[in-house]
Design goal:
With 163 residues, the chain is an alpha+beta fold. It has a single domain, classed as Porin (Beta Barrel), CATH 2.40.160.200. The chain is 15% helix and 46% strand. A hairpin with a 7-residue loop joins strand 1 and strand 2. It is globular. It starts with a strand and ends with a helix.
Length: 163
């Protein structure tokens, strides 16, 4: 199954929809504008919270917590590296590999693909395709991918403000 994320280009806070293969809205993602650390709410189209992502503030390396149904299911940690970003997913026994800057990577468990992520180029704003192998992993895979996107966006913003 596939999900598509198209982030809005001009927004004061994160706000976008996630579409299914038929192009129908499936989830609505919205960040909190005034909060300590990054917080994202992933709601189904009925307004029910499907996942919640929260940044751990005052951490040496970026850490984010992923909650599904009010329960923490994972912690995403950006590891210390010099050249290319590397992430660790704690709590799910998932591995993640690929080119994060190009948004071309995959998440696996014991060598079996959970989700592949591809950035669609030549579009207005960032668009991503998530190809999820098992529909039961849909919301967790979506939340993990959104978390990695948060870390990448924060890293890019920090790098541009340092220049």
């Amino acid at each position: 199954m596939k999900l598509y994320i198209k982030q809005k280009v001009f927004s004061w806070k994160d706000k976008f929809t996630v579409k299914d293969e038929a192009g129908q809205d499936k989830y609505f993602v919205e960040g909190e504008f005034f909060s300590w650390g990054k917080k994202l709410h992933v709601n189904d189209m009925g307004g029910n919270e499907a996942a919640f992502i929260q940044q751990k503030v005052f951490s040496f390396l970026p850490k984010y917590f992923v909650f599904v149904n009010g329960e923490q299911i994972a912690e995403i940690v950006k590891e210390f590296t010099f050249l290319k970003p590397k992430y660790r997913i704690e709590g799910l026994d998932w591995d993640i590999n690929g080119n994060f800057w190009a948004h071309d990577y995959e998440i696996t468990k014991n060598g079996k693909t959970i989700v592949t992520i591809r950035k669609e180029w030549m579009t207005w704003g960032d668009s991503y395709e998530l190809d999820i192998a098992d529909p039961r992993d849909e919301i967790v895979a979506l939340a993990v991918v959104l978390t990695i996107d948060c870390v990448m966006a924060a890293s890019a913003a920090a790098a541009s403000s340092a220049n």
